[in-house]
Amino acid sequence: MPESKGRPKPAFTPPPRAQKVKVGNPRWFVPLMCTLMIVGLLWTATYYITGEQYPLSQIGRWNLGVGFALMLAGFAMTTRWR
After folding, report:
1. Of the candidates 57, 55, 82, 81, which has an alpha carbon nearest to the alpha carbon of residue 70?
2. Helix (H), strand (E) at residue 46
3. Which of 22, 39, 54, 57 would bridge with 50, disulfide CB 3.0–4.6 Å?
4. Where is this region: Disordered (predicted)?
5. How far apart are CA 68 and CA 35, in angstroms?
6. Sequence-distant (≥ 6) Cβ neighbours of residue 29 within 8 angstroms
């Protein structure tokens, strides 16, 4: 009985190497996060210590909102910190 011819095998090519994924944050991320939280704390403390005259007396109790918004922005950044 005649034998069938074998199929030519393609040359082995190794799979492409996976590129390294950069893990981490930019260098400015952590200093900005800490700065936002500290500035928010100082803003709120200044408002209470000065008897509601500083930092901005025109906006009244909204100074608390500004201080807490700054602190929350810094805290929200901690969820992205790697």
Report:
1. 55
2. helix 29-49
3. 54
4. 1-20
5. 13
6. 77, 80, 81
Site of tokens 């007396």: 57
Q: Given the structure tokens 């700065």, which residue do they identify?
A: 35
Can you tell me the distance from the alpha carbon of 40 to that of 37, in angstroms, rounded to the nearest whole number? Answer: 5
User: Of how many residues is the chain composed?
Assistant: 82
Model confidence, pTM: 0.70
At a CB cut-off of 8 Å and minimum separation 6, what does 34 contact? 74
Q: What is the pLDDT of residue 59?
A: 92
